[in-house]
Amino acid sequence: MSLSDKDKQHVQSIWSKASGRLEDIGNEALSRLLIVYPWTQRYFGAFGNLTNAAAILGNAKVAHHGKVVLGALDKAVQDPEHITANYASLSELHSTKLHVDPDNFRVLGDCITIVLAAQLGTGFTVELNAAFQKFLDVVIAALRKQYH
Ligand code: HEM
Q1: Which residue in 37, 56, 85, 102 has the fewest CB atoms around it within 10 Å?
Q2: pLDDT at residue 1 above 80?
Q3: CB 43 less than 6 A from any atom of ligand 1
Q4: Does ipTM top 0.95?
Q5: CA distances from 46 to 43, 65, 134 (A)
């Protein structure tokens, strides 16, 4: 699986359209994950009150962690040639320490896509959507790499 130059340009274009809003996008995507797919809450026991949508949307730890996740994605956008190598320790962490079921990577990817689509409106064209999906495929494969 690899990204063409065109895919990379499309992903850069999404990122520049979303610039300045990336932190909010991370928070909204992670909140959406926890609300729409509530089984994912089990991994975030240290985050305090996640008992309902309002609590999740107002949870500062969720907001902070959303920013952290988007920061990792930003690294992948900026250096698309080395996603697997750059994500090796993150994959190890999610596998051996956090024991995150890797199917959840896809679900979070979908949440990020939905939030981007809502933010960019008609600017999130079908071509950009397709390239972003390929980009997520590469990111998810990298995150799954250390699972055995
Ligand atoms: C921690 C990225 C998906 C659960 C982290 C960290 C990063 C990250 C950068 C911080 C690592 C550190 O502190 O060294 C990502 C990316 C994802 C992803 C890029 C997919 C696009 C998920 C999913 C779950 C999850 C789907 C669970 C459903 C966690 C947990 C932590 C964590 C529980 C530790 C949080 C804490 O206690 O601070 N992740 N993650 N991650 N991730 Fe992920």
Answers
A1: 85
A2: no
A3: yes
A4: yes
A5: 8, 12, 32
Please say whether the beta carbons of 20 and 26 come within 8 A. Answer: no
> Is the CB–ligand 1 distance for residue 69 below 6 Å?
yes
Q: What is the model's pTM?
A: 0.97
Cβ contact 26:67 at 8 Å: yes
What is the C-alpha to C-alpha distance for residues 85 and 77, in angstroms, rounded to an integer?
Answer: 14
Domain limits, the chain: 5-144
Q: Is the CB of 90 under 6 A from ligand 1?
A: yes
Residue 2, pLDDT > 90, answer: no
The number of the ligand 1 atom at minimal distance from the alpha carbon of 104 is 26
- Token digits of residue 102: 């890797």
Tokens coding 113? 């896509």
Contacting residues for 1 by C-beta, under 8 A, at least 6 apart: 134, 137, 138, 141
pLDDT band at 147; cut points 50, 70, 90: very high
Class of 5-144 in CATH: mainly alpha
Nearest atom of ligand 1 to the alpha carbon of 87 = 19
Asked whether 73 lines ligand 1 (CB < 6 A), one says yes
Structure tokens that stand for 30 in this block: 């992670």
